[in-house]
Each structure stands twice: as structure tokens, then as C-alpha cells.
Write a structure and sequence with these properties.
Helix content: 55-70%
Shape: globular
Number of strands: 0
Largest sheet: none
CATH topology of the largest domain: particulate methane monooxygenase, chain B
Structural class: mainly alpha
CATH architecture of the largest domain: Up-down Bundle
Distance between the termini: 22 Å
Strand content: under 5%
């Protein structure tokens, strides 16, 4: 019974990490005062503490059953505490010159992935654990996944290099025939909850300059439509696996990678066009180019257009490169075992 409670605690903590980070993104983008004990940071601390407690119970009570995932999550909790202390020193020494991805932040990211990855290892069939992994990837890659960037090659190369690995592993390890789809739905609901709930709370910038006035918390960007390629992978690997089994591991990886790239690129390309249109300017989609961090200076016309990046056009050769990345990523996902 205690082990089951500990496992549930790990899953809740895994979900709490990306949710708290999205809240932190909204807080910094709306209010601007990022204190050590701000509410989003406290929620992150609580999620990590809950994960550490659950992992410790599992490591003690089920030494032979799930030790690896529990110990990985425990290591992540210790690494996070180290990163917080390291970050305090780093910020005092370098201040604003520290940048975004300085060493303490990198260590925090590694710690977050260890906590959530350990939770996933303890419950490999859980849609919530898989969805939390996808959500954390989305948080880390958030600046590169704005709708305005989703017609560029870097976005598609990144998505095809990362998401097939997780979705293929989910489809392979899951207890159900639609495990990857369920995890993608969990990811959609986790991120979507922050799109729909955050704007309900009043807030205003407390620092300047203010280029985009706000009176409520900034919603998170709408989640990527990972449900579509996840469904395709489930159909290939679990629902109708006979076709896939005719091939060796690389053949299955090629089939899965091609399916992901084709479905994801078509669906997300079309959906991003919708997100920048006036039709998406609603509470549900939070699109239409209306929601921006208060400190971001951006031309009005750029808010609803795709951003041209030198040398980043999504050409046929780059589409082939994205497909190759998806195949390699899917091959790694097929290597994952219980």
C-alpha cells in the first residue's frame, strides 16, 4: 500500500514539475519580479520534495522491483538542490550577465529530466508520466516553439529529433494499444491547463520597460499537436504491428520516423497558421498574436506573421534532414526496455 502511494506521489510530482515551470514562465513574463520564494518557485520545490519522498519510499521498500527509477529520481532531487544553491551564488556573482542557459540552469534542467525520467521508469505504462516527459521537453524548448517559428526549419528539425524517441518508447513500453496517444493527450491537458487557467488570475508588470501591458497572467503557448503522430505510431507498433514486424529494428525505425515526420509536419504547419489568425484569438487557443511577455519589444506586424530566419527556410533538403532525424530518434526509442 505504501509503495502504491509512493508511486502516485512520484507521478503527481512528475506532473507538477512542468506545470510549475510553465507558471514560472507566465509569472516572469507578466510580473517580472523573480524572487527565490515566489509562488511558482515554491510549487517547484514542493514537486521536487514530493518526488524525493516517493522515490525514497520505493527505493527502500522495493529494492528488487523498481530501484533504478527511484534512485534516478532521488539523484535528480539532490541535483536540483545543488543547482538552486549554485544558482544563488552564480546570480550574485554575474547578475543579468548570467544569461538564460548558464551552468546552474543546465543542472536544473538535467535534474528535472532525472526526476521525471525516474518517475516514468517507476511507472512505464502511465500516461501521466509519459505526458510529463513530453511537457518538460516542451518547456525546455519553449522559446523555439512559438507559433511564429513553426514554419522554419529549426523548429521541425528539433521536433523530429526529440519527440519520436519518447513517443516510440511510449508506444513500445505501454500496457495499452494506445499508450503513446494517451501520453500525448495527457501532455495536451497538462499544458492546456496552463493556457486556460493562468489568464484567470489578475497580474501586472512590476518592472520596466513595459512594451506589452498586461493585466492578467500570460497564458502558455498552446500545446503542440503531438496526438496526431502519437496515434500514427500506436497504429504502426501496437494496433497493426504485423506490418512493422516484417522489418528489422532499422526498418521499423524508418517506418516510424517517416510516419512521425509526415504527420507532424503537415498537421503542425497547418495548425500554426491557424494560431496566428484572428480565429485563434480566444480563451481556448490564446492565439491571434495577442499574448506576449511585457518586456519583449516586437513590431505589431511581427506578432501575427511567421518570423523569417536567415538560412532557416524549410526547404526540401531540410525536410529530408528532419525525416532522417525522426528515424534516428525513433530507433533510439525502440531501444528502450522495461
Amino acid at each position: 500500500m505504501k509503495s502504491r502511494i509512493a508511486q502516485i506521489a512520484l507521478l503527481l510530482a512528475a506532473a507538477g514539475v512542468p506545470l510549475s515551470l510553465l507558471w514560472d514562465y507566465s509569472w516572469e513574463s507578466t510580473i517580472g519580479v523573480d524572487l527565490l520564494w515566489s509562488p511558482p518557485h515554491v510549487s517547484t520545490y514542493l514537486a521536487i520534495a514530493l518526488a524525493a519522498l516517493g522515490a525514497l519510499v520505493l527505493a527502500i521498500r522495493e529494492r528488487a522491483a523498481r530501484p533504478l527509477g527511484a534512485w534516478v529520481a532521488l539523484w535528480g532531487a539532490v541535483a536540483f538542490l545543488t543547482a538552486v544553491l549554485f544558482d544563488r551564488w552564480w546570480q550574485s556573482a554575474y547578475g543579468l550577465a548570467a544569461g538564460i542557459w548558464h551552468p546552474p540552469q543546465l543542472l536544473k534542467a538535467v535534474a528535472f529530466f532525472a526526476v521525471i525520467g525516474g518517475s516514468w521508469r517507476c511507472a512505464p505504462g502511465s500516461a501521466l508520466a509519459g505526458g510529463s516527459v513530453l511537457a518538460l521537453i516542451g518547456v525546455v524548448a519553449l522559446p523555439s516553439t512559438f507559433a511564429n517559428r513553426q514554419h522554419g526549419a529549426p523548429f521541425h528539425l528539433l521536433a523530429c529529433a526529440v519527440f519520436p524517441l519518447v513517443l516510440t518508447a511510449l508506444a513500445t513500453l505501454g500496457r495499452h494499444r494506445f499508450s503513446a496517444t494517451a501520453a500525448a493527450l495527457a501532455y495536451t491537458l497538462l499544458v492546456g491547463a496552463m493556457v486556460w487557467l493562468l489568464p484567470l488570475f489578475p497580474a501586472a508588470p512590476l518592472t520596466g520597460p513595459i512594451f506589452n501591458p498586461r493585466d492578467h497572467l500570460l497564458p502558455s503557448p498552446f500545446p503542440l499537436l503531438l496526438v496526431a503522430p502519437a496515434l500514427a505510431l500506436d497504429l504502426l507498433l501496437r494496433v497493426r504491428p504485423g506490418t512493422a514486424r516484417r522489418f528489422d529494428a532499422w526498418g521499423r525505425a524508418a517506418e516510424c520516423g517517416l510516419a512521425f515526420a509526415l504527420v507532424f509536419i503537415v498537421v503542425q504547419w497547418t495548425f500554426s497558421t491557424f494560431l496566428l489568425s484572428p480565429a485563434a484569438d480566444s480563451w481556448f487557443f490564446a492565439g491571434g498574436g495577442r499574448h506576449w511577455p511585457f518586456f519583449l519589444q516586437i513590431h505589431p506586424s511581427a506578432k501575427t506573421t511567421f518570423w523569417p530566419e536567415p538560412g532557416a527556410d524549410f526547404t526540401p533538403s531540410r525536410a529530408l534532414a528532419a525525416t532522417a532525424f525522426a528515424i534516428l530518434s525513433a530507433r533510439l526509442g525502440l531501444c528502450v526496455r522495461r
